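Slide 14.
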Amino acid sequence: MIPLMIAKDVPVADGMSLLFNVGITLIPMAIPLSVLFSMIFSLGRMSDDSEIVAMRSFGISRERLFLPYLIVGLVVALMTLALNVAVIPASQKKFKTMMLKLTSTGMLSNIRPEQFFTEIPGVTLYAESVDGDGKILGNANGKSGKGCGTGYFGEERGVDEAWRGECAQYAPAPF
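Slide 15: predicted structure.
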């Protein structure tokens, strides 16, 4: 992901947004584990200091002693469920959308006039003229690696329209 961000000159804010969207998916694993370890630590400490024995000798039942741990566990489980149902899918969708935009924008920025362009796997492009940092291709031809046809862009087409498909079909881009 980092080499892609460097190669495409991604703004720092977009890079941080990508890292945030990836990092938020780790929260449902981290929170329950941290709560588990903190409960084990606190119960171990209470046991070492004989606080559990002292509370039991004052007449506090086991159920009442461990009720706060049960409540915290249920709250953490509900928070994790809410994250997994609402926040994580939205974050993953945003991440995939941003990655699709990053990988597709500037894809043709390295194309040169009257040279074959093969950086797209399975596709070879040739343009007689290139304007606007690869955004406008003049008399562009392309051939897919499937060997089932050659697509012709026409006079001038923008990169906002993508040439794709098994048989080199020309179609508008999905975004």
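Speaker note: Confidence is low (pLDDT under 50) at residues 147-175.
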